[in-house]
Amino acid sequence: MPAAGPAVRTKTMGTRLTRTASGVMVAVGCLALWSAPAFGAAKAAGANPDATKASGDETAAAKIEKQIAGIQERMTTLRQEELTVSMAAMKAQQAAQGAEDPNKIRDELAKGHQNREYLEYKAACENAAQQYEALAEKYLRVAGMVKALERDREKAPAELQPKLDELSNRAQDKYRSLLDKVVEYYDKCANVKSAIQTYQSLYQSLPEDKRDRTLKEKIADLYEKAGDLQNAAALYRSIFDSLPEKERFADRNLCQRLSALYEKAGDLRSAIRIYEGLWNVPPPNERGKDRALGDKLGGLLEKAGDLKSALEVYKICYESIPADKRETDGKALRDKIYNLEIKLGLRKGSQVPAGSPNNGDRRYGKRR
Fold it and tell me: Who is most buried in 21, 195, 292, 307, counting CB within 10 A?
């Protein structure tokens, strides 16, 4: 036998041929060129194609968790800053007002009275408003950070998602409450224009479904203080119109507020329509039992010159009083009815002054 020579290696298409010492050709696949560890890793990856994605998700989750912790730390710092601003604002206001009633100072400033003490008070309040406004902007930036995280909330572990919701709500609520403080301090020094601008900016930044009733009422009340009755009434009207039709007149406080603004603005017909809606809520046999409502509606009708309708309302109210109590409880109504009948030419006589003890009020219902 020939002497065994060294093994000869020949490369072919993707395959390596090796001649062994015995002269036998053995085909060895190219994968044999890989190291054992690399081969093991490749095998594992091939068996689990989601491994790389899972690893990436874990990294993203850890990043989100770290960002949440950073936001929480930032909000803790801002709470301390708010406490500092609050104490400084309160001390400055108290020092500026001295022994004066702050409500009196506000009223005097609203009238245009500006002495040195009042101007110092105004400066202290406006400075406090600006400090709170700067703090509110910081919370708004925090809310923006949370909003950015929420766009990737599907990458966050389930246990972190409630934290995102909580942080978002806290940041937004704090931003709103700080703007309330801004408006409060502007209003304290009769700077209603700046107070309105603060709320208007917030109002315009919100989508329609987030423009809640409380915010609209606050803006409307500021408009009223500024003498802008048209815009004040328009905001209360938007609240009224947003309610289901069957529920609009169930909210008596809202109706009375809206009607008062209409009346103050000289729009008596609109004011009357609101009170007529309230008047028609109970069934006909129960109308008139609410004396305060009847008196208000009748008074508006008189003011608008609709004496016949006013007379009808007063009569319904009077008839709703139990017969055994009409002598005492119905005196004011008898006077009103008696006087309207004279004005309408339904009876002769002299009108009875309101609150008069004159026995003329007993003649209601008798023609002369």
Answer: 195
pTM: predicted TM-score of the whole model, two decimal places: 0.73
Q: Does 156 share its domain with 265?
A: no
Looking at the fold, whether 69 and 200 belong to one and the same domain comes out as: yes
Residue in 201, 180, 205 with CA at minimum distance from that of residue 128: 180
Let me know whether 234 and 314 are in one domain. no
- Indicate if 164 and 123 belong to the same structural domain: yes
Average pLDDT, the chain: 84
Q: Assess whether pLDDT exceeds 90 at residue 137.
A: yes
Closest to 332 measured CA to CA, from 349, 318, 345: 318
Residue 270, pLDDT score: 97
Per-residue pLDDT reduced to its tens digit, 65-104: 888 899 999 999 999 999 999 999 999 999 998 888 999 9
Per residue, the 3-state secondary structure of the chain, as one string, reads: CCCCCCCCEEEECCEEEEECCCCCEEEEEHHHHCCHHHHHHHHHHHHCCCHHHHHHHHHHHHHHHHHHHHHHHHHHHHHHHHHHHHHHHHHHHHHHHCCCCHHHHHHHHHCCCCCHHHHHHHHHHHHHHHHHHHHHHHHHHHHHHHHHHHCCHHHCCCCCHHHHHHHHHHHHHHHHHHHHHHHHHHHHCCCHHHHHHHHHHHHHHCCHHHCCHHHHHHHHHHHHHCCCHHHHHHHHHHHHHHCCHHHHHHCHHHHHHHHHHHHHCCCHHHHHHHHHHHHCCCCHHHCCCCHHHHHHHHHHHHHCCCHHHHHHHHHHHHHCCCHHHHHHHCHHHHHHHHHHHHHCCCCCCCCCCCCCCCHHHHHCCCCC
Does 355 lie in the same domain as 305? yes
Nearest Cα to 126, choosing from 109, 101, 108? 109
Percent of the chain clearing pLDDT 70 (strictly above): 80
Count of domains observed in the chain: 4
pLDDT reading at 23 higher than 50: no
